[in-house]
Amino acid sequence: MAVGIESVQKQNVVDVIYQQMKKHIQDGTWEPGCKLPSEAELTQTFQVSRVSVRSAVQKLRDLGVVVTHQGKGTYVTRDVARYDVFSDNQPILHLSREEFDDMYVFRQTVEFRCMALAVKNATEDNIKELEQALNRMLVNKDDYKKYSQADFDFHLAIVKASHNKIFIHVMESLKGIYIHYLEELNRVLGITLESVEAHIKVFMALKNRDAQAATETLNAAMTHNVQALEDARHP
């Protein structure tokens, strides 16, 4: 695919590469579903390092307009020019409304029940595992991927504390889907002080064997996410 891209000889090479790639997506040169040139091809075209190319592609990926499939390459995910949703400051949620709603119902059904069970069945080791996951979240507030992994471990620890083997198996089997869901929320909405405080409150409530406080806190946080996503979709 021959695309006219200017060679980059500027200080902020990542931003220049990003802007040129963005232009080709917006003007339709790289259409939805189109596979982007390989990392090696982009490196040669721009005459820059692979690190710079990776950083520019990552910025596009974070905005949700390209997706990388392991072993296959990077593809444009949507017609951003036509729908005018390509904003440098407004990341796109790469998660369908149906997927989000399904996870919302799953969490209300399973996690809320597991918190009630955890209040009765949690051991000191369960509480310690919950606290360790929370600490990893606090340490990784500036890295949404690491934060999301710790976030999943936190919610998995709640389910483990229920000591219900079926719930635990279901939660572990959904790990990939659940982490993707958390990564999208944390990437698009950001890791806010409210989110961190909500997890701390849930931990303290479970530690104090207060199921109602834990459920109310998590429900409020999830409701806030729904509203925040609606605001992001319709600014």
Overview of the structural elements:
This protein is mostly helical and 235 residues long. The chain folds into two domains: 13-82, Orthogonal Bundle (Arc Repressor Mutant, subunit A); 97-233, Four Helix Bundle (Hemerythrin (Met), subunit A) (Up-down Bundle). It has eleven helices and two strands. It has helices at 13-26, 39-46, 50-62, 80-83, 97-121, 124-139, 144-162, 165-173, 175-189, 193-207, 211-233, and strands at 66-69, 73-76. The chain has a two-stranded antiparallel sheet. β1 (66-69) and β2 form a beta hairpin. α7 (144-162) crosses α9. It is elongated. The relative contact order is 0.09. The model is unreliable at 7-11 and 81-85 (pLDDT under 50).
Keywords:
235 residues; mainly alpha; Arc Repressor Mutant, subunit A; Four Helix Bundle (Hemerythrin (Met), subunit A); 2 domains; two-stranded antiparallel ribbon; 11 helices; 3% strand; WH-like_DNA-bd_sf; Lactate-repsonsive GntR family protein
